[in-house]
Amino acid sequence: MYKIYTLLWMLAGSLLLLPQAGATGQDALEELAKDANIIIRSEETVFTVNSINSGTTTYNVTLTILNEHGNHRAKLYVGYDKLTKVERLEGTSYDRFGKKIKALKSKDVVDMSAVDGGSLFTDNRVKIANLVHTVYPYTVEFAYEVSNNNLLGYPRFIPQDEERLSVEKASYVVRVPLGTKLRYHESNMPQPVNKAATATHETYTWQVQHLKPVETEPYGPGLEELVPVVRTAPTDFEVEGYKGNMESWKSYGMWINQLNQGRDVLPDATKQKLIALTANAKTQEEKVRIIYDYLQGKTRYVSIQLGIGGWQPFEASFVDSKGYGDCKALTNYTQAMLKTVGVTSHHALIRAGDDVTDIRTDFPSSQFNHVVLAVPMPNDTLWLECTSQTEAAGYSGSNTGGRHALLITPEGGKLVRTTDYTAADNSQLRHIRVRLDEKGSGTASITTHYKGLQQESRSGVIHHLQPEEQRKWLYKQVQVPSFEISKYAFEQQKSRVPVVKEQLELSLRQCATISGKRMFINPNLMNKWTSVPNQRDKRLTEVVRDMAFLDVDTVEFDLPAGYAVEFLPQDITHTSAFGEYNATVKVDGQRVIYRRSLQMGKGRYSPESYTKLVEFLNNVIKSDAQQVVFVKNIP
């Protein structure tokens, strides 16, 4: 406790010596510092729209770093490109007594490419200002100004953008010329926007103050659902001569159509080759798969981000001759090839990523970071990830599945959902045969079929790791107490829901425990549920499960001669709103047959249901730990 109050005293002294940071009473300061790594003392963002294609953003922040976990906020990253210019970048740091540590100089600012070596054509760069200190607490101030000739996306106000961060005060001001329509969306804001006007501009101001640190809960919503957020977007905009309107998804799609127009022309020789390749295809889907295989064998992904090239694809003829392109270019190229063989398809803008939140469907705006191709089929849609050289045709997976995409049709944009995967789609079906010896050791032959989302890690291993690296990876993944891998093999079946077959031969040490004349076996050899998150006194947020799955394990143990069953667990079933668990153990002579299945769904549930989830998972853990006991008949 002494350390806590010492820290608060030092913090108070530091902040009160910085009049530009404002003053905070001791009680309020203690509330802001509790459970925090960083306190934002003051943050102000002012975004001024000069015209439909130009604007400026000024940013000023003063924040206090309380410990080493907040040091990343003492680094400021300011991105720029051909359409964006950093006009000013300043920074100063102070120690806990308010004494200046360092004023940022131009030589202290690192200017580097904003992308990795996988990008061949890019003008995206970033300036990095570093004021990290090693004695806590310390305070940093940053200020910058950026001018922009691309107003496709307006700034977003999210002052509390990470956990264990508190905010004394923060504001966001948008200034637009009189008569210009600003579109905005507020979430969790304590107060709505304050509107005012000058002789030349309308001003929109949002403010927050005294925000205590927020922490997400296990199986809970993401941080963005819990904190204040303001999203802003233009109505009319222009990027390098291409004018558009974003008032609806339809009109936004029409702007994308402008960018894509006339860029799908292929050389005649390529067209003839594609027609010949698909001449014997019996269905439209077979044509698509042939073209997709051709794409994967011919091209590779290279990011191309040059001005309007961040949104406009390179011509199909360019990709055809060079053999590379970014997501837009490769999608456009695939669409052109399919058009050649009589198959209609559409670009689709999407927010890709394993753990990203879905877009705000009620707020048309630039919320996407990727492009895929949608091919309408008689009964559904075939989705193609055109940047991958290994993915199965039609598989969206964790990167783009189960979310909204903006389909770009000739009539404009239209929101649709990509493929959602059920528990049966994401299955793990395993059969194990174990042969035990008198000492409780033995060998195991294991065949597992991983499907859908559950096969993705294995698919990555197959395509990106060498055999010796694969073996090392398996040693980390196999959940058996003591073993050696004798043999292993992978086999992948590419389909709309791909499957990886994994075969293992293991040498097991002490798979069973011998105590006198008894042998103890835990029949769940490889798939035990082992942990449950802590419960708080009161659950505050909904329970969120993002993935449905089905695991079925069948384990057969061949016992050494002379053993008979002494204790056999009863059949077990646990059922809840979250899923169902079943386990059975049968004995057939010298063979023990264990079967366990666990199916869990996805969805959102009330905060009160969390105790039921914990109860269900605790029951699974207890059931997974049960043992079968055998006794040796001694003549």
From TrEMBL:
Residues 54-214 form the DUF3857 domain. It comes from the Bacteria. Keywords: Signal. Residues 1-23 form the signal peptide. Gene3D superfamilies: 2.60.120.1130, 2.60.40.3140, 3.10.620.30. This is DUF3857 domain-containing protein.
